[in-house]
Design brief:
Strand 9, helix 7 and strand 10 form a beta-alpha-beta unit. This protein is an alpha/beta fold. The chain has one domain: Metal-dependent hydrolases (TIM Barrel), CATH 3.20.20.140. The strands form 3 sheets. Strands 3-5-6-7-8-9-10-11 form an 8-stranded parallel sheet, with helices on both faces. It has a two-stranded antiparallel ribbon with strand order 1-2. Helix 1 crosses helix 2, helix 4 crosses helix 5 and helix 8 packs across helix 9. It is globular, with a radius of gyration of 18 Å. The chain binds zinc ion. Zinc ion (ZN) binds next to loops. The site of zinc ion (ZN) has 4 residues, from loops.
């Protein structure tokens, strides 16, 4: 890695080698109120929430994790001032997102719908090079997303804008998939000249045949994340041991990452969150990794590759 290479966190750029163990897909906060036409007057007091989140980051840090990607896009509870404060006061490096969510769970933010492709590229690029929203805090990753079974026109526009902003700024891309459409996302990126190796595709393992699907993604060269580990409302640990063990056995350890998709505060989408707010960012470190090692024969070195080397590589800005 050259000296100029960087990963962009909320408290400034860091050398990739300083990142440490990283959770690739988490949230501090998810708030769908604005998008659902029922904006909430947040019922938390700023300092209380900062304290609560910092306490979570301390737990996470004590469990051996030193960085996480906050994947909340524009209009979905991306409270930059809050996140920045948590990053300043807590021990964990936080990487924040520009970009928009998909439109099958709730409408895409009006700004995202209204802007054309070029204007979206400008918006994402500005958030990366100047600052997110009305702040001077820069985004370190571009988030984009697709719904279930198809990629809508607006979602495709977001994927293309993400690809072009990535090419313009070097900023990494992370995507959300909903039970599939990861391969179709790669097709769109490739048509924009962005290769699968440049992309992180999240929520793999939810497809009809997760072993085969994840292998197809890996064969294309994509980086994939298995990232609702610990959320038992979806799958138990056995499922994740099976799909991750398979990916490693097939020789793809360099493309696999793990995370929880947890959040401290969730509001406004019963279908997606309901009573099941999952806020244990230590589950993988405490419970899952020992199980993965025990049951799938994964080595310490392979764990380090997935938790440290891979995030470090994929989160580094391209020249
Ligand atoms: Zn997420």
């Amino acid at each position: 890695m050259t000296e100029t290479q960087k990963i962009r966190t909320l408290t400034g750029d860091v050398a990739p080698s300083d990142l440490g163990r990283t959770l690739i897909h988490e949230h501090l906060c998810v708030d769908w109120g604005e998008m659902l036409g029922r904006p909430k007057v947040l019922d938390f007091e700023f300092d209380d929430m900062v304290q609560k989140m910092v306490a979570k980051m301390e737990e996470l840090h004590a469990a051996g994790i030193s960085a996480m990607v906050e994947c909340t896009p524009i209009g979905c509870g991306r409270y930059i001032d809050l996140f920045k404060e948590v990053a300043l006061r807590g021990p964990v490096k936080i990487i924040a997102s520009t970009g928009f969510f998909h439109e099958s769970w709730c409408p895409i933010h009006p700004i995202g719908r209204a802007l054309d492709l070029d204007a979206l590229v400008d918006l994402f690029s500005r958030e990366i090079t100047e600052g997110m929203g009305d702040t001077l805090v820069k985004a370190g990753i571009i988030k984009c997303a697709t719904g279930e079974g198809r990629i809508s026109e607006n979602e495709e526009k977001m994927l293309r804008a993400s690809a072009r902003a990535h090419k313009a700024t070097g900023c990494p891309i992370i995507t959300h998939t909903t039970n599939g459409m990861g391969l179709e996302q790669l097709d769109i990126f490739e048509s924009e000249g962005v290769s699968p190796e440049e992309v992180i595709v999240s929520h793999i393992g939810f497809e009809e045949d997760p072993l085969d699907y994840s292998e197809q993604m890996l064969k294309r060269g994509a980086n994939i994340s298995f990232d609702r580990i610990g959320m038992k409302i979806f799958f138990d640990d056995d499922h994740w041991v099976r799909v991750i063990g398979n990916a490693i056995n097939k020789g793809y350890v360099n493309q696999v990452m793990m995370s929880h998709d947890a959040a401290v505060f969730v509001y406004g989408l019963e279908e997606a969150s309901g009573e099941n707010v999952f806020d244990d960012y230590t589950y993988i470190s405490r419970v899952f990794l020992p199980k993965l090692q025990r049951e799938a024969g994964v080595t310490d070195e392979q764990i380090s590759i997935m938790m440290e080397d891979n995030p470090q590589r994929v989160l580094t800005f391209r020249d």
